Amino acid sequence: MADYDVLIIGGGPVGAALALALRGTGLVLGLLEARAPGVTADARPIALSHGSRLILERLGVWEQLAGATPIRRIHVSQRGGFGRIELDARQAGVPALGYVLDYGQISDVLARALETGGGVDLIRATVGALDSGTNAAAVVAAAGNVRVSARLLAVADGGALPVARLRVRDYGQAAVSARVACSLPHQNVAYERFTPEGPLALLPLGEALALVWTTTPERARQLCDLNEAGFLERLQESFGNRLGRFSSASRRAWFPLALKVADRIADPRTVVVGNAAQVLHPVAGQGLNLGLRDAWELAALLRDCDRAHIGGPELIRAYSSRRRLDRGGGILLTDSLVRLFSNDLAALKLARGLGLAALGVIPPARDFLARRMIFGARG
After folding, report:
1. Mean pLDDT of 179-204
2. Whole-angstrom distance between the N-terminal and C-terminal Cα of the chain?
């Protein structure tokens, strides 16, 4: 007899969203998280799509995130080349293309919703080992006497849990993040400007802008070591004067970038979601949005599944099949953008310009791209 119908490993936004989506279904739920409760000090900017907003509304937490800054338009261009495209919320038929907030904010809001609503056993422990059996899977804590079993383990922890073999592609890039202010109002426009070293994104966040600047690891370190004036000068050179003059910048941080893809997202008694299934480049802001759709689709299958079949072959096949197109599309989109735009080859620069120009003047193609970014492959 299993302790739980579903045991979720990892209490970040994706794991918490899965737990909230299953609460009230009558299933016996557990969530195992190593971190102690408290405020998450992670100021990385996150762009939630309108599709993710709809999920969070259904989970009853969107009102607590209402301070997120809406993106009304997205402006895409390449430095030193022609062609651009603008995506507009009105043309896409949505109130906003996305919403910008700190990762720590969404993480804390979802964690509080779990802690106050009941219906989910919260287990504070670090995973030491996983053991998948015929009728249940077991989790053994790294320390202490904690051992729990479940009909299905849903692994949402992006750490090094031995549940799936990861294919890794090191992009040889790093992202610098900061908050910057400029002399002109952003008017709720997000900018994605491709440079030979990688994309430079500026996202509206309150009255300021959240910067995610992709470059080489060596230059990322140099940018973080510069004083404020020196950093702003380099940013001005790379982005240009579309937003006037950059006037201030917060403390900067950088992190390496790689594509990590699990070879399988479902095995008997075990599935992986979110960063345990795929870690994407931040270009186009697809990572967390894809993870939230992982959680929502898995919850939908579990709500319709007979308890005796939870974790069994039919559910495993259904989840793998249901996520194949959306997951594959998100991986292909971000990886292709990095490969096509992170170079200074003349032939590719011309092709990129023609492609951007074509998307800008062919409404069906532009709208198709917008809906895929907002809702995923099922949009």
Report:
1. 95
2. 40
Q: What is the pLDDT of residues 230-282, one digit of tens each?
A: 999 999 999 999 999 999 999 999 999 999 999 999 988 999 999 999 999 99
User: Using one digit for the tens of pLDDT, what is the confidence trace for 27-59?
Assistant: 999 999 988 776 666 778 999 999 999 999 999
| Domains contained in the chain, CATH given | 4-44+104-166+263-341 (3.50.50.60)
- pTM metric for this prediction: 0.93
Of 151-155, 266-270, 375-379, minimum mean pLDDT range = 375-379
Is pLDDT above 90 for 350? no
| Rounded Cα–Cα distance for residues 265 and 277 (Å) | 6
Structure token digits, residue 67: 């301070």
HEC assignment per residue over the chain: CCCEEEEEECCCHHHHHHHHHHCCCCCCEEEEECCCCCCCCCCCEEEEEHHHHHHHHHCCCHHHHCCCEEECEEEEEECCCCCEEEEEHHHHCCCCCEEEEEHHHHHHHHHHHHHHHCCCEEEECCEEEEEECCCCEEEEECCCCCEEEEEEEEECCCCCCCCCCEEEEEEEEEEEEEEEEECCCCCCEEEEEEECCEEEEEEEECCEEEEEEEECHHHHHHHHHCCHHHHHHHHHHHHCCCCCCEEEECCCEEEEEEEEEECCCEECCEEECHHHCEECCCHHHCHHHHHHHHHHHHHHHHHCCCHHHCCCHHHHHHHHHHHHHHHHHHHHHHHHHHHHHCCCCHHHHHHHHHHHHHHHHCHHHHHHHHHHHHHCCCC
